[in-house]
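Below sits the subject:

***
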Amino acid sequence: MSCGRIVMGIWNYIKNSGRFNAACYTLEWVGSLPGKRESRRMDTAYLLSQEDVLRHTDFADGGFYGGWYMDFHPAEGIGSDEDNCTQIPVNVYAVPLRCLYHADFPNLLFAGRNIGTRREAFVSTRVMNTCGLSGQAAAALAWGCLRWGKSPAALAPEEVERIRQTLLREDMFLPGLSNQDPEDLARDAAVTASSRYQPEEGPAAGWFSLEQGGFVACPCPDEPRGRFLVRADAPATLQAVWHCCPLPSRLCPGQPAGEQSWRLTAGENWLDALFPSQAQGQYGMLVFDPAPGVSLALAERRAPGILCGRADAPEYRDSLFLPGKNSFYAPENVVDGCSRVWRQPHLWCSAPEAAPWLELRWDTPRTFDTILLYLDPELSMEIPSSRTDHWEDHHKFAARKGMPPQLMRDVSVQALTENGWRTVACCTGNRRRLLELSAGEAVTATALRLVCEKTWGDERAHLFEVRVYRQHR
């Protein structure tokens, strides 16, 4: 009864307070049995721990990932004197396949909220996105067990790796794992493109105030330095702390790696950012101290993988940050084995142009029928899964409105056969981040050209990875 009264009291506030635009809504159903927020978890071959979440343990059988806060709520519930919610930010971490089974039950797999974790890890893995990924991992694990006729615990290391490569092919992000699929013909191709984007010095498109502090995150370039523009109302000193991490966030910048400061004159100042040695091979993040009267210049166009913002604000902005010599957006990134941002952007980004193209070329003819494109869905934005008229401050979501502009919309694929170039596949109105294009038949060619006819708004083409297969023989 007490739980029922609490539910109805909360619903009364939602419907009648005027804060949620819900006056015409009806509560259709309420469960009759109360359930504990953090309930049963299974004793599996491995129990994910708090240390794994915080230290980002590198598992040989990592099968999916998490990244939500360690989100604690008092066991006493709504009547507790403790804080209703304590959230500890974390970076992306891997979850091993061993959390999905127990050796004593060879025909049983777990997925969702009942996977094997300790309570301190469960408060992060229990959210729906991570639960969904665990289901995809469990399905791939079941496929492997059927393929080799073994229980999960009996799988050999090379069979576990094959399962992980299958997950990677299906666009599962597995931190640190690269494409090693021997059937992917793109891995042996030489890659060229119509152009490559390069951020350029220019006037500020806007200004981001550093009065309450802020940050700039950028992968460490080959030449470990960068330049950025600030504006000061009066002479001042700007101070910042460097942090390093494979994939930082506004709430989890990584490990501190030294300080840097600059003397500013009134007006605009171009400043040098010197990446610390610890940033080699990963992200460097400059976290600025509060600087009243100082603003950071914003760019007209986003440089993929380079963002600025503030820890207590959900929106990311596009900093006018010019990295040193780098290969961030080179065409060959589409075959470097990584299909998502991790330590580096790992994508090809063209210059602004009409119908940018990317070409794969082989020394000898290859026969294929399927092309996989791993596109850019703007993963720094949220896709809301519920009502968005009202957001609680502690959620701090930057909700996406409309289609991500950098996602390819209309695409065609041409092949250089013995009879010359011809179109073998195309797609219009694409809304997927993993786009599978079928040629309809086996095609033998020495080159393949992808043409981005149109995006959902950006003038540039964005592409993380290309794979080419012969699936039907």
Remarks:
- Helices lie at 2-16, 50-55, 119-125, 128-148, 157-169.
